[in-house]
Amino acid sequence: MTLLLLLLFLCEAQSWVASKPNFVLLMADDLGIGDPGCYGNKTLRTPNIDRLARGGAKLTQHLAASPLCTPSRAAFMTGRYPVRSGVASQSQVGVFLFSASSGGLPPSEITFAKLLKDQGYSTALIGKWHLGISCHDRGDFCHHPTSHGFDYFHGLPLTNLRDCKPGEGSVFTRAFRLLVFVPLQLIAVALLTLAMLKWLRLCQAPPCVFLFLFLLAALLLGLLLGFLHYFRPLNCFLMRNRDVTQQPMSYDNLTQRLTADAARFLRRNAETPFLLVLSYLHVHTAHFSSKDFAGKSQHGSYGDAAEEMDWSVGQILDVLDELKLANNTLVYFSSDQGAHVEEVTVKGEVQGGSNGIYKGGKANNWEGGIRVPGIFRWPGVIRAGLEIDEPTSNMDIFPTVAKLAGSPLPQDRVIDGRDLMPLLQGRAQRSEHEFLFHYCNFYLNAVRWHPPNSTSIWKAFFFTPKFSPEGANGCFPTHLCFCHRQYVTYHDPPLLFEISRDPRERNPLTPTSEPRFQEILEAMQEAAARHTRTLQDVPNQLSLGNLIWKPWLQLCCSSWGLSCQCDREDQDGRQSL
């Protein structure tokens, strides 16, 4: 009798495991909706992303909850607007730029990885994190992926920056100009003026004044040279779990190495439910690609990187097929926000991607900044070749995977995402999002409304960025659009578009062109007010105090001061695929 009960228990347990789907979530960085072939690109080769779309559902109005990396990824992980977790900046800097910053995804936040881990899933994040490392000391790892539900992490805890690759320039050029070059010019003018006055015998400045100015200039130059020398090893490094494995990071076969590790994770966990988040460094600058892809695309270094990422997607799909796991695995592909249209080198090479027909790009809430690829494949569950034009959000991944894994949603907080399975399976024809709120960092920028029993989709802007130069499709002098003060134009009444008819956002409506103008705006403003009342005051994770470099938080794989050098990485990932 005992043996019979044991056999029944084991059979039930195996059935329970088999019924739990696996999840592979593929996240690109700065990929525009106009880049993949399945979204209309005719010259960038993305056969594997296209194959994914043919085998499942393609969303054509899939929206990032924020047009910047850090807040968008916080929303993706938690199913909540980033303003709720404090990952929404009130200043010009909207992302983490130093590995030794104290801000990040708060320990109190619940990620989908935590929920799935509690349901018995093996969980891994491979690639880019960009949601912080530690809070108070270098060993607490309070923001680290392994503190947010991931059993395994291998990748870049910060982000890929131009400063990480020698010869690719710097994202700090504007700061250098304001904090170093302008003061140096003022010091030079002061020295010349004092010298001239002394020569003309109009003023006799004491020698200590000249000495002070020379020392101040030397200090500024020293700080600049120190920053340029140390930034790369201190911020551009790879980790495996909580150990630094390569400092500074090498780009040699980097995509191959991370892809091989993702494949090994799939093979190790083929017999148990798993969650794999493969978060690509592509196609954020600095661009890189292996010799198999360098110089092979029609779109320069950006195209080479995009096509290498597509190769990686294909490798993951092939491993799922090889392990006979495709039919029990939900695969999702997207980008954290739209393409960075202002990425142009001093030589004029365009290094940003394509947002298709849509206006704007990364860092603003025009459609080009937030409308991203959204592809779901689950053979036998999601019909192949499906195309859905309903408003959806990257926050929707959280409740979707939680429900499929059998996990209840947290009841002690607002979850802004909605379960997508009714829409993906054809059991519902409309998105559950009547309203979506578009934030530019901390500031509520726009509202999207899809009224019940209507095909219209309205979008109202409370402010818009000032594009520069005039007639441009971005904010080129500042490299990104900012969210407040002199960098935006405020609109009263709000600027209203009917996105369903005017997806390019070319023709703002007026009381003359839209008879229900006031009625529509009132409904959207009331929704914004209701939404705002659900927000709570939380610590600002992107405050100046949380953004600045803190030496006591700095991770270093050697004990020789700031000369951090080590390499414990397999340099040729292709052998392990």
UniProtKB/TrEMBL annotation:
<dbReference type="GO" id="GO:0046872">
    <property type="term" value="F:metal ion binding"/>
</dbReference>
<dbReference type="GO" id="GO:0005783">
    <property type="term" value="C:endoplasmic reticulum"/>
</dbReference>
<keyword id="KW-0106">Calcium</keyword>
<dbReference type="Pfam" id="PF14707">
    <property type="entry name" value="Sulfatase_C"/>
</dbReference>
<dbReference type="Pfam" id="PF00884">
    <property type="entry name" value="Sulfatase"/>
</dbReference>
<keyword id="KW-0479">Metal-binding</keyword>
<dbReference type="InterPro" id="IPR000917">
    <property type="entry name" value="Sulfatase_N"/>
</dbReference>
<dbReference type="InterPro" id="IPR017850">
    <property type="entry name" value="Alkaline_phosphatase_core_sf"/>
</dbReference>
<dbReference type="InterPro" id="IPR050738">
    <property type="entry name" value="Sulfatase"/>
</dbReference>
<keyword id="KW-1133">Transmembrane helix</keyword>
<protein>
    <recommendedName>
        <fullName>Sulfatase N-terminal domain-containing protein</fullName>
    </recommendedName>
</protein>
<keyword id="KW-0812">Transmembrane</keyword>
<feature type="signal peptide">
    <location>
        <begin position="1"/>
        <end position="18"/>
    </location>
</feature>
<dbReference type="InterPro" id="IPR024607">
    <property type="entry name" value="Sulfatase_CS"/>
</dbReference>
<keyword id="KW-0732">Signal</keyword>
<feature type="transmembrane region" description="Helical">
    <location>
        <begin position="209"/>
        <end position="231"/>
    </location>
</feature>
<feature type="transmembrane region" description="Helical">
    <location>
        <begin position="175"/>
        <end position="197"/>
    </location>
</feature>
<feature type="domain" description="Sulfatase N-terminal">
    <location>
        <begin position="21"/>
        <end position="406"/>
    </location>
</feature>
<keyword id="KW-0378">Hydrolase</keyword>
<comment type="similarity">
    <text>Belongs to the sulfatase family.</text>
</comment>
<keyword id="KW-0472">Membrane</keyword>
<dbReference type="GO" id="GO:0004065">
    <property type="term" value="F:arylsulfatase activity"/>
</dbReference>
